[in-house]
Amino acid sequence: MAKNTNITTVADNRKARFSYEVIDTLEAGLVLSGTEVKSLREGHANIQESYAAVEGGEIWLINSHIPEYFAGNRFNHEPRRRRKLLLSKKEMARLAQAVEREGMTMVPLKLYFNERGIAKLLLAIARGKKLHDKRETLKQRDWSREQARLLKERG
Q1: In this predicted structure, what is the pLDDT of residue 110?
Q2: What are the residue boundaries of the structural domains of the chain, listed by start?
Q3: Interatomic CA distance for residues 87 and 57, integer angstroms
Q4: How far apart are CA 124 and CA 23, in angstroms?
């Protein structure tokens, strides 16, 4: 089987960039079973309601949905199981500190396969936006669309 030379996005959490102010991002590996990888390769996953949490000195991806593989029979996985994230000790300590001391949240932004065909998760350290911040984001987005439309009309 030929390896992919580009990054294949499986799931994207577009709502996270609207609801949170992203401070920093980092790439994490995932501990997956065989049927989970096969289901991801078919492009089936949902990380909209998922989040990451520190438990027992490890970081876990909670509430992500990877549906069962159709040909997985009795060896299929549980769709909403907790998945361990693979990070260095230094990265785990930095994330744990940000969550505990600074009141930040770990939010998954994107689930993808890298150039080597390995499933990765783009994890963000983020701070929740207030309602007025969300309104400001909407205003800026509408204004940029309006500017683009006006420039297009003028030629």
Answers
A1: 92
A2: 8-129
A3: 11
A4: 7
Which residue has 């989040």 as its token pair? 51
Q: Residue 12 CA to chain centroid, in angstroms?
A: 6
Query: Residue 64 and residue 67: Cα distance in Å, rounded?
Result: 10
Q: CA of 116: how far to CAs of 5, 26, 66, 89, in Å?
A: 8, 18, 21, 23
Place of tokens 């992919």: 4
- Profile the chain (155 residues) by mean pLDDT over runs of 10 residues: 68 86 90 86 88 89 86 78 91 87 86 91 87 84 90 83
Q: Which pTM value belongs to this model?
A: 0.76
Superfamily grouping for domain 8-129: Small protein B (2.40.280.10)
Closest CA to 83 of 113, 109, 108: 108
